[in-house]
Automatic annotation (TrEMBL):
This is Uma2 family endonuclease. It comes from the Bacteria. Keywords: Endonuclease, Hydrolase, Nuclease. Pfam families: Uma2 (PF05685). The lineage of its organism: Bacteria, Pseudomonadati, Bacteroidota, Cytophagia, Cytophagales. One of its GO terms (molecular function) is endonuclease activity. Residues 16-188 form the Putative restriction endonuclease domain.
Amino acid sequence: MRSTPPKSYPEGLTDDEFFVVCESHPGWRFERDVTGKVTVMSPVGANSSNKNFTLTVLFGNWLHEHPELGYAFDSSAGFTLPDGSIRSPDLSWIKKERWEVLTPEERNKFAPVCPDFVVELRSASDVLKTLQTKMTEWINNGCQLGWLIDPLEQKVFIYQPGKPPEEFSGFHHKLSGGALLPEFELDLLKLK
């Protein structure tokens, strides 16, 4: 039986203490923001999980063709960002040379690296404004490309350093990974 985590945690947990909290509650996702506030994220509904699985498979297919470029991670991976927050996107990717400089110990905890590419997929329990703030934090911490995909309203927000977010309505678009993720295109209709 899965243990239910407390609704709140004291601020100021060290990285190691936070890691122990997360390890003590398998099946739950946790994040810690820059102020030290811990957020408990319950499992998502089956429909959102299916969309996340589809996204992961499509990205995995691309990665299978380009394994020399980097490493991908699912929604259970947490990363310690330069601002001290620990975040967990729905999908992420790190350039090979950046991942391989990390020690085995760093890789086995919340790796101290900001992914180069992240995707946040809005579920029914997510507040859009909260996800938009989170996407800005990813970019501010060094992420090169971020996609916020909102199947509920069929909108996409693209985040890149030095640019305001781009917003697209409708899922008739294909998203391009550009130079960062050569030849990767995501047909949004597959997430409808």
